[in-house]
Amino acid sequence: MSSPNGPLVPADRLPFPGAFDAHTHMDIMGLPVDGVLAAARSAGISRVVNVGCDIPSSQWSVACAAEYPEVYAAVAIHPNETAPVDAARDTVLAAVEALAASPKVVAIGETGLDYYRDWSPRDVQRAWFRAHIEIARRTGKTLMIHDREAHSDVLAILAEYAPWRPYSVIFHCFSGDADMARACAEAGYVMSFAGNVTFKNADALREAALVAPAELLLAETDAPYLTPVPHRGKPNSPAMTAYTVRFLASLKNLDLADFCATLQATGSRVFAW
After folding, report:
1. 148-202 tens-digit pLDDT
2. How far is Cα 211 from Cα 232, in angstroms, rounded to an integer?
C-alpha cells in the first residue's frame, strides 16, 4: 500500500491498535499533515508527538496539536540551535515556557547535549539543558532528551536534579549501549527507540533494547529521518512506527498485543494524555 501523502504499512504488518509515534517532525517532512496522519491511522498508529527544535517549529507543533486530535506537541530549543539564540537566552526560554502552557504540550524537548556535531559550545549547551530541565520541573512536563555522544554529561546533569519522580525523562532516539540502558533503567528513565535499532550495524542498540525493561520503552520515528528496515533510505513517516514496534516485540520475545498495551500504558503515564 502507498499514498502520495506518505507511506503506508502493509496490512499484514499492522501492530496492535493503540501504538503511537513518540517523536516525529511532520513540519520537516514537507507533506500534507492530513495525509501523513491518515497513513499513520491506516498503520495502527493512533497518536503522534510532534517535536520542536526552535521557536518556529515549537509554535508549529503547538498549532498542529490544536488542530488535530491525535497530535501532541513538545517544545524546546535543540542543543545544536542554542548558540545562535544564546544572546537572547532569557527571552527565548520565556517563549518556550509560555508555549509549554498549551494544553496539548506533553513534553519539554528536544533538549540535551550533542557532542557529535558540536555546533554549539558545550558550556552553552549545558546551560540551556539545565534551563530546560527547570522549565520541565516548573511545568510538570516530561523532559525529552537529545543525547548524542554525551551520555556521561547528560546523566550527570540529570543526577543534579534527582529525584525525578513524579517527573518523567525520555531519552529520545536512544543511542547508548547495554550499560547505558541499565543506568537509565536504574534511574527510571524511559528509552525511546527509533528505526535505527533495525539497522544491520546496530548490535549495540539491540543489546540495549534487550536489557531495557519493557515498561521503560517507547517507539518513535524521528521522521523524516532513521527510516526502519525494510524501507531504510526512504523518507520516514509516523506510519513506520509499526515496523519498529514489531521489531522490538520480536527482539524481546514479547507478545505483540501485550507489548503494544505496555507502550500505551507508558505513553499515558509519561505524556498524561
Report:
1. 999 999 999 999 998 876 679 999 999 999 999 999 999 999 999 999 999 999 9
2. 25
pTM of the predicted protein model: 0.93
With beta carbons less than 8 A apart as the criterion, state whether 195 and 240 touch: yes
| Residue labelled with grid coordinates 518513535 | 220
Q: Which residue has the cell 525523562?
A: 169
For residues 58 and 32, is the Cβ–Cβ distance under 8 A? no
Euclidean distance between the first and final Cα of the chain, in Å?
30
**Other beta carbons within 10 Å of 264:** 17
Q: For the beta carbon of residue 28, count every other beta carbon within 10 angstroms.
A: 16
Residue type, 9: V
pLDDT tens per residue, range 218-260: 999 999 999 999 999 999 999 999 999 999 999 999 999 999 9
User: Closest by alpha carbon to 48, among 82, 74, 30, 29?
Assistant: 74
As a three-state string, the secondary structure of the chain is CCCCCCCCCCHHHCCCCCEEEEEECHHHHCCCHHHHHHHHHHCCEEEEEEECCCHHHHHHHHHHHHHCCCEEEEECCCHHHCHHHHHHHHHHHHHHHHHHCCCCEEEEEEEEEECCCCCCCHHHHHHHHHHHHHHHHHHCCEEEEEEECCHHHHHHHHHHCCCCCCCCEEECCCCCCHHHHHHHHHHCCEEEECHHHHCCCCHHHHHHHHHCCHHHEEECCCCCCCCCCCCCCCCCCHHHHHHHHHHHHHHCCCCHHHHHHHHHHHHHHHHCC
- Give per-residue pLDDT as tens, 70-118: 999 999 999 999 999 999 999 999 999 999 999 999 999 999 999 998 8
Distance, CA of 272 to chain centre: 15
